[in-house]
Amino acid sequence: MKIIKTFYFIIFSVILASVMLTSCGGSKQTKTDYKPITGGEVYETPCQMYDDDDWFYATGVRQFKMSSINTAPTALLRSTQLQMRQKLSGVYKAVLRDYFDQMSTDEGGYANEHIESAGDLVIKTKINETYEVCRKQTAPDANNNATMYMSIKVSKKKFVDDVVKEISKDKQMEVRFNEKQFRDSALKIFKDSNKEEFNKFQENQKY
């Protein structure tokens, strides 16, 4: 009888040891499969779009209460339009600097004032014409808050065409305005701004 009890005890011990070994092996496998986030990774905002050869883009983000969901899109559109206005103004100033570098001093004074005001007018018009090309929204959290993302765009070609048209309305500028040089300056600055924007975004998104 004592031998039988000893035999059962040995069998039980072997089974228990096997179960514990299997359990530890499973835990070890789970830890191996887990891959923590490491530094240097880049994350993109929903609706994030980058300037290309044809379009300027601006992306806005807004957190809001679900109770104001009916007014949130309009509010976000207005703030995103402001971003676009700031972008166009900065790029246009760079275009003017490049353009006037090609002009003589006596031409620059009058032309500078007129071309700058023409650009400001076109920028204002373009901003008012923009509309959303992408909108995404998160699910509400425990506090009934959500986040909305939106992008708008402006045609680069149409922007330059409209500025040239506005400048040409002044009869004095018909002779003094070098349209080809202006378009060349715009094309050069637009390409440079594409690279700068994308590089800046990548740098800011690294962790």
Walkthrough of the structure:
The chain is α+β, with helices and mostly antiparallel strands and 207 residues long. It has 6 helices and 3 strands. The protein has helices at 2-33, 72-100, 105-129, 156-167, 173-176, 179-204; strands spanning 55-65, 132-137, 145-155. A 3-stranded antiparallel β-sheet has the order 1-3-2. It starts with a helix and ends with a helix.
**Gross morphology:** elongated
Number of separate helices = 6
The first-to-last residue Cα distance is 69 Å
Helix content: 55-70%
Rg, alpha carbons = 31 Å
Low-confidence stretches: 2-12, 14-42
For the largest beta sheet, what order do the strands appear in spatially?
1-3-2
Which oligomeric form is depicted?
Answer: single chain
Sequence of secondary-structure elements: HEHHEEHHH
Mean pLDDT: 78
Number-wise, the strands total: 3
Which structural class is indicated by helix and strand composition?
A: alpha+beta
Q: Per DSSP, what share of the residues sits in E-state strands of 2 or more residues?
A: 5-15%
Present the secondary structure layout.
Layout: H1 2-33, E1 55-65, H2 72-100, H3 105-129, E2 132-137, E3 145-155, H4 156-167, H5 173-176, H6 179-204
Antiparallel strand pairs: 1-3, 2-3
Helix pairs in contact: 2-3, 2-6, 3-4
Structure characteristics:
3-stranded antiparallel beta sheet; alpha+beta; 207 residues; elongated
